[in-house]
């Protein structure tokens, strides 16, 4: 019996191209100005400090910090200070109406149905908790933050590490087998499965497929008894 669902965002409930072709380019375009303008802000300076730690260079100049961040966006590195800064930058894009948070309609229907059925909903994404909440506050379906019971990001660890899912489970009032993890990425599903969580892979938009986890191409085909 599934009592809680932990869902990935990109490639699972949100189209990959929204993240790669809208959010990442927006962050790349605005990052330098944002970091230079706000580098004294406490939350921003904390992340700049964390970038210097990642670089093993406490003396890295602000130019070097910006270059590293832009390189990480280009390479889609899930480095925590980059993901935190992206959340700050995307805020103005959402608030100024430059874009809304993409959600597949079947994902929206599914989340609403599960919520109505009493299943607790959580999010685990490489995007920061702030970025997750922005996407859901400004989604294609309006503000849907009320659907979710909690949010996790890379501060609990990388998504391909079983320990990250142990950390999440330790914060939930459910046994591992009562929790279903949703993702498009097999390595993430493997890590969740190693903790005893149930898994379901989403095959979206012709993404590469493998049959190592139960899989569906739309939540319209979700059947809990097949898990
Ligand atoms: C919160 S939307 C931005 C998603 C993001 O930044 C990202 O890197 C995608 O990660 P996910 O773990 O959702 O695949
Ligand atoms: Mg994903």
UniProtKB/TrEMBL annotation:
A family per Pfam: Hydrolase
GO biological process entries: L-methionine salvage from methylthioadenosine
InterPro entries attached to this UniProt entry: Enolase-ppase_E1, HAD-like_sf, HAD-SF_hydro_IA, HAD_sf
Pathway in which the depicted protein is active: Amino-acid biosynthesis; L-methionine biosynthesis via salvage pathway; L-methionine from S-methyl-5-thio-alpha-D-ribose 1-phosphate: step 3/6; Amino-acid biosynthesis; L-methionine biosynthesis via salvage pathway; L-methionine from S-methyl-5-thio-alpha-D-ribose 1-phosphate: step 4/6
Keyword Hydrolase: yes
Cofactors named for this entry: Mg(2+)
Cofactor annotation remark: Binds 1 Mg(2+) ion per subunit.
EC number(s) per entry: 3.1.3.77
Subunit structure: Monomer.
Function (record text): Bifunctional enzyme that catalyzes the enolization of 2,3-diketo-5-methylthiopentyl-1-phosphate (DK-MTP-1-P) into the intermediate 2-hydroxy-3-keto-5-methylthiopentenyl-1-phosphate (HK-MTPenyl-1-P), which is then dephosphorylated to form the acireductone 1,2-dihydroxy-3-keto-5-methylthiopentene (DHK-MTPene).
Protein name: Enolase-phosphatase E1
Organism name: Pseudoalteromonas byunsanensis
